[in-house]
């Protein structure tokens, strides 16, 4: 297959790379925003057993 | 870039673009999933944070898209035969079958885990079950085994509003079951009408649609029976908590039109259909799309107007 500099293959791969990049970036932002919403919501509580259990427990 | 920089073996002439991978997710089916899941979420009697609601609908849609990709992977052989599906990314040679499988599995896992984390575990489990039902029960098992494939397999397409409801409330009640039943009963007449005017496709692919196994006369009778049962269910839903005056008005008008369409199909024979190129069947199919959209649109309107004292009973 002969590939010129502006071959359609490059355009398709560029669209794939940009699309994938934007999807991943969007996912990261979404997880960040979702985490913020969850942490700042009224019902949020940290797990009670975050610290390691002591001998007496 | 020189010619030698991309080996011929990987430089396929039909190399996939981002749009080809997106097409694997069946965007048109996904739009129905988004809409009905959103209605389920809005109709639930619980306030949901907009970001959580957005995430819920997004991950339900991705789950639906993932099952679409797995369906295209499994059905690649018959998609190559049927005219309606020949332009899909795998038959068109743009995406390899293992790529579709991998994408489907990865997105299934992502959507289930993220829905569970964003909303609640029941919703995540429900989405996992829906993907399993569509891919394993319908695509791998029933689709090629029984003429009732559409009836039972249609359940997977009916789950999204119930998942939306469970994402909001964490429990399943009568209302989401009614929304499920509405899509469940709507699916067979919708697809059988399609099978009547796309008949060669299913014949050629040896998919045991009712038209192939029991004949076209039986299919016409089945369309009428299911439409009558659907009409009773759809109008009856108007008297429940998700119904109201708007929904009931929409349901009565649409179901009268739908039953008239089914009676027309039932009264016709093949010669009459051939003469006008399946005009009644095609118009019934188009009406079925509007039917579902407007029923769920009315449920959404009832829910959105309720805080202003206008929606609901």
Task: Characterise the protein shown here.
- The complex is a heterodimer of chains A (57) and B (313).
- Chain A has 57 residues and is mainly α.
- Chain A contains one helix and no strands.
- Chain B is flat.
- Chain B folds into two domains: 154 residues, Tetracycline Repressor, domain 2 (Orthogonal Bundle); 141 residues.
Number of strands of chain A: 0
Quaternary structure type:
heterodimer
Helix content of chain A: 55-70%
Question: Judging from the principal axes of the Cα atoms, what is the shape of chain B?
Answer: flat
Strand content of chain B: under 5%
Structural topology:
The complex is a heterodimer of chains A (57) and B (313).
Chain A lengths: L7 H33 L17
Chain B lengths: L17 H6 L3 H17 L6 H25 L1 H4 L17 H22 L2 H22 L6 H10 L1 H10 L4 H24 L1 H7 L4 H4 L2 H22 L7 H23 L2 H6 L3 H27 L8
Kindly summarize this structure in a few lines.
The complex is a heterodimer of chains A (57) and B (313). In chain A, 58% of the residues lie in helices and 0% in strands.
């Amino acid at each position: 297959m002969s590939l010129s500099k502006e071959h359609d293959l490059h355009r398709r791969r560029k669209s794939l790379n940009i699309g994938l990049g934007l999807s991943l970036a969007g996912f990261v932002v979404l997880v960040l925003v979702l985490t913020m919403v969850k942490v700042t919501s009224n019902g949020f509580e940290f797990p009670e057993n975050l610290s390691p259990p002591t001998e007496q427990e | 870039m020189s010619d030698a920089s991309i080996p011929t073996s990987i430089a396929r002439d039909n190399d996939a673009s981002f749009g080809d991978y997106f097409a694997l997710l069946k965007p048109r089916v996904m739009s129905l999933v988004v809409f009905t899941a959103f209605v389920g979420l809005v109709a639930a009697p619980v306030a949901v944070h907009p970001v959580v609601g957005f995430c819920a609908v997004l991950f339900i849609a991705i789950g639906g898209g993932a099952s679409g990709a797995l369906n295209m992977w499994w059905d690649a052989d018959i998609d190559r035969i049927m005219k309606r599906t020949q332009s899909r990314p795998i038959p068109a040679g743009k995406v390899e079958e293992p790529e579709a499988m991998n994408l489907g599995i990865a997105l299934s896992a992502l959507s289930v885990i993220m829905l569970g984390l964003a909303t609640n575990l029941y919703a995540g489990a429900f989405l996992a079950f829906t993907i399993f039902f569509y891919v394993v029960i319908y695509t791998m098992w029933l689709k090629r085994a029984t003429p009732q494939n559409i009836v039972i397999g249609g359940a997977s397409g009916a789950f999204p509003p119930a998942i939306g409801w469970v994402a909001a409330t964490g429990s399943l009640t009568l209302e989401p079951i009614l929304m499920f039943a509405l899509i469940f009963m709507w699916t067979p007449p919708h697809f059988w009408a399609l099978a009547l005017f796309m008949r060669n496709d299913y014949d050629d692919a040896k998919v045991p649609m009712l038209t192939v196994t029991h004949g076209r006369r039986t299919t016409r009778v089945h369309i009428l029976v299911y439409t009558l049962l659907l009409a009773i269910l759809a109008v009856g839903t108007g008297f429940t908590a998700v119904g109201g005056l708007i929904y009931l008005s929409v349901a009565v008008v649409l179901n009268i039109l739908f039953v008239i369409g089914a009676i027309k199909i039932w009264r016709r024979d093949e010669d009459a259909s051939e003469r006008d190129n399946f005009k009644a069947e095609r118009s019934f199919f188009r009406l079925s799309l509007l039917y579902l959209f407007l029923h769920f649109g009315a449920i959404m309107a009832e829910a959105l107007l309720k805080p202003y004292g206008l929606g609901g009973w």
